[in-house]
Amino acid sequence: MSARFTIARLGSQGDGVAATETGEVFIPFTLPGETVTAAREKDRATLMSVLEASPLRIDPACRHFTECGGCAVQHLEVEAYRQWKRDKVVHALKSKGIVGDIGALVPCAPATRRRVVFSARRTEAGIRLGFVRALSSEIIAIEECPISLPVIVAALDCLKKLAELVCATTKSFHMTVTVTGSGLDVAVHESGKLGENQRRIASNFVIAEGLARLSVDGEIIVEPKKPVVLFGGVAVAVPPGAFLQATEAAEQAMADIVGQHLSRAKKVADLFAGCGSFALRLAAKSEVHAAEGDAPALAALDRAFRFANGLKRVTSERRDLFRRPLTFKELNAFDGLVLDPPRAGAEDQSKQIARSDVPFVAAVSCNPVTLARDLRILIDGGYALKSVTPIDQFLWSPHVEAVALLEKPRRRR
Q: Known SUPFAM superfamilies for this protein (predicted)?
């Protein structure tokens, strides 16, 4: 049964929040100040109609908006959207008692996302390829995607055919598509075990369509062209399913901020180094020690360094920084440090950094909540927070990146 609600604010996940006598109700695709009717179920409701629209409401960019679960706030005016994302960082830091210089959001342009994860499933009507509806397992087939690079959108029919060829399961599976300098790199996960005939047919299809690589659950099925990306002009042959920042522009913005902060450091530690997006750029001016738990990513970084010209020394170490963080004594060998952990943050590693004498630290995060926790540890350990820069690379979603810069005077030994 539907009821009338007045939206008080925009929640952290992009849902409108209405206050009622029985608690808050979260209503997707609504905006503060709006009066709406919605069908309530516990603390959530499905929007039925907008009775009084906010002046900040705009037409969404995509026909699949409200169905596809990928975007939450395409209906919000651009400046209000950017302020909402910046405020997510502000509020997270304030919750830990951190107040500092928080810059304006570095914006994300449409049609720039280079890495997209599709869901696929075989149905009676054939393969369905798209994104999962929010709070559901239903796959919404898509025909457009205004956040993605045009080359990915143009390949949707090709990708759908490839999904059909590799499907060996009745369950849904995932297809990660990455734009590289060599073409599209397609990494499929949980599609079932391929038979020999399937492998041959899929391989021939990949070659005929000019794709760079097909892998299934980490195994390379065919690689006509080794997928390569550039980190500061250094070519890196990335392994199947390798983590990359979602947009090239955001990666460069983060690298510029980090690089400037660490420009005086002769020896830099890059923690959670991945394939080297920071390490290989920093190596233009500094010696770098890269620590990373993923062996294929670290091997790609090391191989890229060995074939590059004009870089200072880069050493690499396979190390699970969650189980075995670099100790403060090890860190004292460096005068600069960058860490870019997953969403869980780097609590134990931050405790070791807080005890260290490293004068310049750059903390990169995709989760303002864990960033705030880790910054509190560093500040309590004697670091001064110089600036925080929010960066958008997941357009129209609740996710926001941030780069925090910290300094600590070196102790005299």
A: Nucleic acid-binding proteins, S-adenosyl-L-methionine-dependent methyltransferases
Interval 20-61: pLDDT, tens: 999 999 999 999 999 999 999 999 999 999 999 999 999 999
Say how far residue 294 (Cα) sits from the centre of its chain: 17
CB 227 within 8 A of CB 213: yes
Fold that domain 2-57 belongs to in CATH: OB fold (Dihydrolipoamide Acetyltransferase, E2P) (2.40.50)
Per-domain residue ranges of the chain: 2-57, 82-109+245-407, 115-229
Q: Same fold for the domain at 2-57 and the one at 115-229?
A: yes
272 annotated as belonging to a binding site for a ligand: yes
Domain 115-229 CATH class label: mainly beta
Pick from 190, 172, 191: which is nearest to 120 by CA?
Answer: 172
317-370 pLDDT, tens digit per residue, is 999 999 999 999 999 999 999 999 999 999 999 999 999 999 999 999 999 999
CATH number at 82-109+245-407:
3.40.50.150
C-beta of residue 188 within 8 angstroms of C-beta of residue 175: yes
Between β-strands 314-318 and 115-123, what pairing exists: parallel, antiparallel or unpaired? unpaired
Report, as residue numbers or ranges, the catalytic residues: 366
Query: Is 292 annotated as contributing to ligand binding?
Result: yes
Strands 384-391 and 401-407: antiparallel
Is residue 359 a contact partner of residue 407, using CB atoms and an 8 Å limit? Answer: yes
